[in-house]
Specification:
about 425 residues, 4 domains, globular
Length: about 425
């Protein structure tokens, strides 16, 4: 074999390895791109990267931050990764602007600080993953007994309402109720139900008028009755997880509101929604039983190498009459096809039987770009069934496997993901 032939053979043998090494280097180098001049750090899949001579490539986010770079606000947005957030934020700003127009902000820093500290305690101890809204707690001067929640985190208390709250637990219950409206996106869902035409195809002036109408409706009329009952449930769940007390404070507060309701206009929003029936809400709370699962118990899903790729946690149960509601969270490195066709089913296998619960709702929280290396996509899932009374108060030590399946037909199911200890 000639030297030329041998050289060509060596090149062909090494070429695949060289190409793979170059591709690996390309991937690693271009995970994060820093601008040496501005010291902003960018993600490679955006379209505003700096010129080549200004670039400094980094393999990890931590390494780039240690090198003195700061995250680009476009590549690393601080807002929650929920669909429709920008429009929901505009709804919140419109609602807050109307409230600021009607009510003067209190001059008492001490009162405001009390509400803000209580709000932080609640957020720090919320029983479910938060969506990531930036909460702002305000107190306004008014002798009316009202509290308001506006989309994406604006919460208002009147000084009149604070005057009838006789304990920190009562204050926290009201705050938890208002936080529930925001976390459950009740206002955003009301808008979608009321103005169903896709927003991008409509006149901006029309949408602006709808926003103003929706803001005034939230303040002057309030939320739907179902939304109020759901907010009561999550406030009740918070109270139970925080104080092991599931209904007494909330019932006491609603009785106070019922006793003074004759002094208020029943067409008002806030706690005194014109659509609210206090006796019905008290009855619903009194008939419901709650069970919270231990926070430190997880079930995991592993790949063929034994590496944990996802984990599941049972959060709480509610038993109301004969209807059992179960709320769980799934956290995964990759997206789980929970939205594929078919009816979702949660299967819990214990030592002596299998429980099946149909899926009622799923809330998807996409992991943030800043958490791309070690973050999780989060799915908050609600399952509901009639006649599963024996499952209430389930001991997790008896659960051997949790799986989520899709029922495609009468006899056909497809397992999406399973979890074990």
């Amino acid at each position: 074999m000639s030297k030329k032939t041998a050289l060509i053979a060596i090149v062909f043998l090494c070429l695949p390895q060289l190409l793979l090494a170059q591709l690996a280097g390309f991937r690693n180098n271009y995970t994060y791109v820093g601008n040496r001049q501005s010291k902003l750090l960018h993600l490679t899949y955006y379209h505003h990267l700096p010129d080549d001579y200004l670039r400094e490539n980094h393999q990890t986010l931590d390494g780039a931050l240690r090198a003195g770079y700061r995250k680009c606000p476009i590549c690393f947005p601080e807002h929650p990764m929920v669909p429709g957030y920008d429009f929901e934020r505009q709804m919140g700003i419109s609602c807050a602007a109307v409230l600021n127009f009607y009510y003067p902000v209190t001059a008492s820093d001490e009162v405001v600080e009390r509400v803000r500290k209580a709000g932080k305690r609640i957020l720090d101890n919320w029983p479910l993953p938060l969506k990531g809204y930036n909460y702002n707690f305000s107190v306004v001067e008014s002798d009316m007994f009202k509290a308001f929640s506006c989309p994406t985190g604006f919460i208002y208390f009147t000084t009149g309402l604070l005057g009838i709250l006789e304990s920190e637990e009562e204050l926290e219950i009201v705050l938890a109720h208002e936080i529930s409206h925001i976390e459950r996106r009740h206002a955003f869902k009301q808008y979608q139900a009321r103005f169903s035409t896709p927003r991008l195809t409509r006149d901006a002036l029309v949408v602006s008028k709808e926003l103003d109408e929706m803001a005034r409706s939230l303040i002057l009329v309030g939320y739907e009755e179902d939304d109020e009952e759901e907010a009561d449930f999550y406030a009740q769940a918070y109270s139970f997880s925080r104080y092991k007390e599931d209904r007494g404070t909330l019932v006491l507060l609603l009785n106070k509101l019922r006793d003074i309701s004759w002094q208020e206009s029943r067409t008002g929003g806030g706690l005194f929604s014109g659509k609210s029936d206090f006796e019905l809400r008290i009855r619903e709370i009194s008939n419901a039983q709650l069970h919270l699962f231990p926070r430190n118990q997880f079930f995991v899903s592993r790949n063929e190498n034994g590496t944990t790729t996802a984990r599941a946690q049972l959060i709480l149960q509610k038993l109301e009459r004969e209807t059992l509601t179960l709320i769980t969270t799934f956290k995964s490195n990759e997206m789980i096809p929970l939205g594929s066709r078919g009816t979702g089913l949660l299967k819990l296998r214990t030592s002596d039987r299998v429980h099946l619960l149909p899926q009622k709702e799923v809330t998807f929280l996409r992991k943030h770009p800043a958490d791309d290396e070690k973050g999780f996509h989060t799915y908050i899932m609600t399952f509901e069934a009639m006649g599963q009374i024996e499952m209430f108060g389930l001991d997790l030590r008896d659960v051997q496997e949790i799986s989520f399946e899709k029922q495609l037909g009468l006899r056909e199911t497809r397992k999406i993901i399973s979890f074990t200890r």
